[in-house]
Amino acid sequence: MINFRACRVLAAINYGPTRFYEFGPEKVSDLKYILAADESSYNPKVQWGEKKGEGMGKFHPLSWYHNFDGGRSFYTALGHLPTVFSDAAFLNHLYAGIFWAATGRK
Question: Full-prediction pTM beyond 0.90?
Fold first, then answer.
């Protein structure tokens, strides 16, 4: 496991029904992944209105960070539903990612 504050409490997050984005191939190198979906734990083949999800297979990243162009970038695909913003574990994940991007401290 990566020693990164934003992934220390992720098991406690109640994801509930949500949408997981499907991403294409990496366009930058050295992304450090801190969270991925286990597609064997849900059915990734879904229809959301006109959008159709097929899943990403064995590796479905949800959150990562990396140094970029002299700065730092943190991304999380979580947070689609308003209720998750009252979940302490999710807020810690979000805060820790922003904290790292602002300070460089994990």
Answer: no
